[in-house]
Amino acid sequence: MKMNLKFVTTTFLAAACCASLNFSIARADDGQRGGDIDGSEHLEADLQMTPTAAAPTGSSIELSLKVDDEDGATEAELALHASGLPSGVYSVSASSDGSTVALGTFTVNSQGEGEIEFATNPEDDGQVVFPANFNPANIATVSVANASNVVLFTADLTNVKATGLSLNATVNGQPGTGVPNASGTATLTANSSKRGPNGQVQLMGSGFPMRTQLTTLVNNSVVSKKGKTDNNGAFNFNFGPKGKASTVAPGVTLLQVTSITLKDPSGNVLMTFSF
Fold first, then answer.
1. Which residue of 2, 46, 135, 259 has the lowest C-beta tally within 10 Å?
2. What residues does 39 pair with on adjacent strands?
3. pTM
4. pLDDT-based confidence at 62, cuts 50/70/90?
């Protein structure tokens, strides 16, 4: 199956002051990947779906997901290719943003082959548009069921030890009210492995109070890595997974990062990055 997703390369500008504090908080605290970000994000998954006990012996389904979010404009494709299934009609469902949505159906022929491709902007014959208000960047699970509604295959994209998952993002920060002219950039790279996600986050910024200790929070959980601004009010530091759980904050892996917040010693928010 040919994936025809168009990737866009952009040059990122330093973040401007938000129009209001409420807008800044809304971007940072939505708790979801993708959506209204200030920058670029690319998510990719290529994996074999997991058969349930009801799946026919020798059957398989390959899943491919590609998502690009450029400054809040999302372009995505989800493709499934089935082999070894009895001929008939099969349904595809996915969970995103906490709810499960029926995406569509596909037909398996007499040779046991079938495929379907969902897209935000269908360009090829046979592509099916994602349902309205569905966020493909935040897909948690995908399942395939037969005509009797018996689930045969599942895929858990939150399984951080599943191979074939990658996330790359570069986003601009939203400055706090006390430093309206500050700017910053966060770059995140993550790849899944059998040991858990590997990669790192790099944070850079300027226009902050000089020689100030920074507390870093990922998804509102404090990380052990503490940065500090220099004599010019700038910072540049990075952090990555630690421990057997390969987490960057308690209960959070690189593939689960949706926000990063920097605070000063008094607890004032200096900058927030939304993924």
1. 2
2. 171
3. 0.80
4. very high
